[in-house]
Every structure is written in structure tokens, then in C-alpha cells.
Design goal:
The chain is mainly beta. Helices cover 0% and strands 41% of the residues. It folds into two domains: 94 residues; 345 residues, YVTN repeat-like/Quinoprotein amine dehydrogenase (Methylamine Dehydrogenase, Chain H, 7 Propeller). β27 and β28 form a beta hairpin.
Length: 448
């Protein structure tokens, strides 16, 4: 369902020039607001754990100003589990993963034994421990989400360090031993800010944001014994440039990904790539549908991919979108500030509802946790006299697929499907409510 903005107009029947209320709403709703402060909190992504809760990190903030780990559930709200103190890590930049043992694992770009970052483990009740500390030739600036294989080993990338200082691919064994699989040399890629994807052939696939042809980045393949192969050289033009996101394996055995720039409008692309390196550009962003995508694609239950863009849209605050494997693109919603702006980390889903975080904005200005779901539109109707009057409520909007309108006198329901709705061309709908109501009525557009 693609609800860009809907307008509710409330006026009294027979009252000339009745009051008009213009509510700009989308299907992005704020679930939790982070406060704005001098250090900026920068919430980083969400991960669904085995206990059914969402877990995330903040890059700054917390009691020591260097980040924290938190838990969020729609029913239980927000709880801070732990605060980093630099010794155990500083400034996490990647979303957590849920480990095979039920704990959460992540990385920090600073802190630890040498100040060059850590790989950490945290239990769902907040017990934090350092697994390894990065530094020097074994990599620095671990800003990517980890990947755990079935044998319990962790694989990932560091954006800097390694033998050539352009970043590397690493493995951490189940006993905590850190080893380098491959180091980048700039000509074959540099600065891998994104994590790895496991291919159907048992090798790992990923992207580098720089290096290669014209420093536009690469797509690479690396085996478990460290054989590194460059599959794609981005050219900065039609096939994109500067990928900051991980590849995602589709149900068709192909990888899908994003570039943050390049393409037909130099605003980024969505692409498909085969394991042999054949790349197909599915979409070039044009601005009003988004630009500068920096959030990994997420495979939905319907086989399509979902993600966000860091900027673009009507207010240049970012968008949420869906794209199918054959390139059918839909803008799901727009960020416009008070519902957050500049999302740049992957979405996570609970019971089919996507949740994510924005770096800035929200109702308190410090970013937020948002959800993409049904939009509820509220019209407050205050009678002009003690006797009350009939109110006409006009609801208009544009929806990208078929839908129905429902109404309730309380936000918790029950919801009643409206039958006297006039549907127009392009997915528009008009409804006139002639009920006598003192108080509020709630409306929403839902899928059939």
C-alpha cells in the first residue's frame, strides 16, 4: 500500500466556510523518539532476536557518551541494556545480529584494547563482553554488520587497516581467534563499509565503497580460504558508484544491492548481480523517489525487497520503498522530519510490520524508531452548539494499490468498513461522513 499523503477536511454541515484541517500523514509512524542533545545519539538499526524483541545500538549518547545497546518491543517500549565505556567498545556503527546461542553480536569502530574497535557479545539481559579487539594489520574501523555461519564462526569486514590499510575481510572462530582472510589493495577495492553475504556456492560476496575503476567501488567474492576475486568494477555512471550497503541474496539465487551515487541521475541505483559478476541496473533514483540509499535491502515474505533512502523525496528527508526482482518499484512512504529523517540502516520486521531507525528528526529531534504500517488519520469534530450538528468529513488520498477505508470512534476500534466510498482514477477515494459525532472519528486505509 502506497499512501503518500492524505488530507482530512472537517466542516459543519450548513456552516459557511467551515474549518479545514490539513493533516500530512504517511504510513511511517514514530514508535519511539530519541531526545536531541549536544552529542547527538545516532540510533543504528534494529535486529529481531529469538525472544521476539528488537535490539539496537546508538553510536553516541548513553551515560558515557560513546554509545549504548537497547531493547524495544511494541508492547514493552524502550529499555537501555548497557552503556559502552570505551574499554569495552566505543561508537558502534552497525546493526546487531542474533547469534546462534541466542545472544546479540556487534562491532564498534573505536575502543577496546588498542582503541581500534571491538567485536562484542551481549545477552538479552544486558551482560556485555568483548570477544576480540581490532587493531593494525588485523583491521580497524569495523563498521559492518557481522555474518555468522552454521559452525558458529563470525565473518565481516573492516573499512580500514589490514596489510594495505584499505580494509580487509576477517574471520573470528568459535574460540575467539581473529584471522584475516583477505586484504584489499585499492586496485581490487577499498574501504568495505558493508558486511558480507553468503552465496549459494559457500563463498562470501560483498562490496567496497572505493577502489577499483576511478575509485568508484567494487563487488567482490572471497572464499573461506581467502581467495579474493573482483567481480564488478563500478564506473560511476550507468552501473553506479560508491556502494555502502551489503548484497542480499534473492530467492532466485541472484544478489541485489544499492549504490549511493552514480546511475542515470548520479543519485544512486538498485542493481542485480549474478555470482559470475553480470550486473543489471534495475533502477536509477531520480530524487523524488529517493536518493543516496545507504540501508541494506531486506527480503520480504512476498519475495520483494524493502529499504529506505537517506535523502530524496518531497522534502529531501528520505523515502521507504519496495522493489521486485524484475524492477517494479514502489515508493511506500516519505520521511518529512517529525516522523524522522535520514535512515541509513536495515529494516527489521515483527509480524510483517517493518521497523527501523532514523538518524535525525522525530518528535524530539534526536532520531527515532519508526514503523511502516497502516496510517490512521484523525479528525477532531467539535460541535458548534449544544444541540450538535452533522459533520461532513472528506477523505482524499492516493494509494498505489487496491484498498478499503475503515472508520472507528476510538483508535482501538472496532473498525467498520465504509461502503459509501467513491473511488476515483489513480487510486483516489472520497468519503463523506454524515454521522452526528461529538468527539473524534478515526479513519485509515488498509489492504483488502
Amino acid at each position: 500500500m502506497n499512501i503518500r499523503r492524505l488530507h482530512l477536511l472537517a466542516f459543519a454541515a450548513g456552516f459557511l466556510g467551515g474549518a479545514a484541517v490539513d493533516l500530512h500523514a504517511t504510513i511511517i509512524q514514530e514508535a519511539y523518539a530519541f531526545p536531541s542533545n549536544a552529542s547527538s545519539i545516532f540510533p543504528i538499526g534494529l535486529t529481531l532476536a529469538a525472544d521476539g524483541a528488537l535490539y539496537g545500538v546508538t553510536a553516541n549518547g548513553g551515560t558515557n557518551g560513546v554509545g549504548s545497546v537497547y531493547r524495544y518491543t511494541p508492547a514493552g517500549g524502550f529499555v537501555t541494556l548497557t552503556n559502552f565505556n570505551s574499554v569495552d567498545g566505543n561508537t558502534p556503527q552497525a546493526a546487531l545480529i542474533s547469534g546462534n546461542d541466542g545472544a546479540l553480536y556487534g562491532t564498534t569502530i573505536f575502543g577496546g584494547a588498542s582503541g581500534n574497535g571491538t567485536l562484542f557479545r551481549i545477552t538479552t539481559n544486558g551482560v556485555l563482553s568483548t570477544v576480540v579487539s581490532f587493531g593494525g594489520t588485523n583491521g580497524t574501523f569495523a563498521s559492518a554488520r557481522l555474518l555468522q555461519t552454521s559452525d558458529g564462526s563470525f565473518y565481516g569486514t573492516t573499512a580500514n587497516g589490514g596489510s594495505n590499510t584499505f580494509g580487509n575481510v576477517f574471520r573470528v572462530s568459535t574460540n575467539g581467534t581473529l584471522s584475516t582472510l583477505a586484504s584489499f589493495a585499492e586496485t581490487n577495492g577499498a574501504y568495505p563499509y558493508s558486511g558480507l553475504a553468503l552465496g549459494p556456492d559457500g563463498a562470501f560476496y560483498g562490496t567496497t565503497s572505493g577502489g577499483g575503476q576511478g575509485d568508484n567501488g567494487t563487488i567482490f567474492r572471497v572464499t573461506t580460504n581467502g581467495l579474493l576475486t573482483t567481480l564488478v568494477l563500478f564506473d560511476g555512471n550507468n552501473n553506479g558508484a560508491s556502494p555502502y550497503t551489503a548484497l542480499v541474496l534473492g530467492s532466485d539465487g541472484m544478489f541485489y544491492g544499492l549504490t549511493s551515487s552514480g546511475g542515470g541521475n548520479n543519485l544512486g541505483t538498485i542493481f542485480r548481480v549474478a555470482t559470475n559478476g553480470v550486473l543489471t541496473n534495475l533502477l536509477s533514483f531520480v530524487g523524488n523517489n529517493g536518493s543516496d540509499p545507504e540501508s541494506d535491502l531486506v527480503l520480504g515474505n512476498d519475495g520483494a525487497f524493502y529499504s529506505t533512502t537517506y535523502s530524496g523525496g518531497a522534502d529531501d528527508n528520505g523515502t521507504a520503498f519496495r522493489i521486485t526482482t524484475n524492477g517494479v518499484f514502489t515508493t511506500l512512504a516519505l520521511f518529512y522530519g517529525t516522523n524522522g529523517f535520514s535512515p541509513f540502516v536495515p529494516l527489521a520486521a515483527i509480524n510483517g510490520t517493518f521497523y527501523g531507525t532514523t538518524r535525525y528528526g522525530g518528535s524530539l529531534g534526536g532520531g527515532n524508531i519508526f514503523r511502516i504500517g497502516e496510517a490512521i488519520f484523525t479528525c477532531t469534530m467539535l460541535p458548534l452548539s449544544r444541540a450538535g450538528v452533522n459533520w461532513n468529513v472528506g477523505l482524499t488520498g492516493t494509494v498505489g494499490s487496491s484498498f478499503r477505508l475503515v472508520r472507528a470512534t476510538d483508535v482501538s476500534g472496532p473498525w467498520t468498513t465504509l461502503t459509501n466510498v467513491t473511488f476515483g482514477a489513480g487510486g483516489t477515494a472520497q468519503y463523506v461522513d454524515t454521522n452526528s459525532i461529538a468527539g473524534r472519528a478515526f479513519y485509515r486505509a488498509v489492504n483488502p
